[in-house]
Specification:
The structure is a single chain. Strand 1 and strand 2 form a beta hairpin. The strands form four sheets. Strands 3, 6, 8, 9, 10, 11 and 12 form a seven-stranded mixed β-sheet that branches. This protein has a three-stranded mixed β-sheet with strand order 5-4-7. Strands 1-2 form a two-stranded antiparallel sheet. With 228 residues, it is α+β, with helices and mostly antiparallel strands. The protein is 21% helix and 25% strand. The chain starts with 51 loop residues before the first helix and ends with a helix.
Length: 228
């Protein structure tokens, strides 16, 4: 029997208190299933937004569950190259922070609660020491990180570069990287006074090196990020 994200099992996994009582977590499949050809999942009922209270009742089934504007999204387990890139990037940033302890870095699965209706699980996130003290709790981050990294896949690329980009911009993320393993490219969005600036695109083919003012001294050659 599957447990939910808060650790409960059995009928209580499906029991939801408040306006979302007994939504389709209690369907024949146990929870909302991905629609055919997409990882987007419809809300429980037309016009109804799911909340963090609903989110914690989703099953721990090895998939990525997220809420964006009250809609439930499910992403299958990542593939080998995705995991290699995540692991390498995390290790490079972590190693830099060991020598320069200016912040903290986390890797998925780790929930980021941006609002009652927005709960995401970025592949990698970074917070300065000061920001971490404000938003890190024993369970999750409750507030925007300074840096968010998403590894794009065929099923998430459009969402990463549209819906999630707008969410992170609205939430106050300082810098957003979309790493695209299919074409060995990283797109970087940096915050200005008006919001995110136009994305900067770096490529392995051009021999580009990724750096960020959030992590002074860190240089990430794309040949290292996209190593074979």
């Amino acid at each position: 029997m599957s447990a939910n994200r808060s650790g409960a099992t059995g009928p209580e996994c499906c029991k939801i208190h408040g306006p979302s009582q007994w939504h389709s977590l209690c369907s024949a499949h146990g929870y909302n299933e991905p629609m055919s050809g997409s990882d987007r999942v419809k809300p429980a009922s037309p016009g109804m937004k799911l909340t963090y209270d609903d989110f914690v009742l989703f099953p721990d089934d090895g998939k990525r569950h997220e809420l964006i504007d009250g809609e439930h999204y499910v992403t299958p387990s990542p593939n080998t190259r995705h995991q290699q890139i995540v692991g390498d990037l995390f290790a490079l940033i972590w190693t830099h922070l060991e020598a320069h302890p200016i912040g903290r870095v986390f890797v998925a699965p780790f929930d980021v609660v941006l609002s009652q209706f927005d709960v995401v699980e970025p592949d990698i996130l970074y917070l300065s020491v000061g920001r971490a003290a404000e938003v890190i709790t024993p369970q999750h981050a409750r507030g925007a990180p300074e840096l968010v990294v998403e590894i794009a896949s065929p099923g998430t690329r459009t969402r990463d570069e549209t819906i999630k980009r707008r969410l992170y911009e609205r939430a106050g993320v300082s810098e957003y990287w979309v790493v695209d393993p299919d074409i060995d490219v990283v797109r970087i969005c940096r915050r200005t006074a008006e919001g995110f600036d136009r994305a900067i695109e770096l490529s392995r083919e051009a021999g580009d090196v990724l750096a960020t003012p959030l992590l002074p001294g860190l240089e990430l050659p794309l040949t290292r990020i996209f190593r074979d």
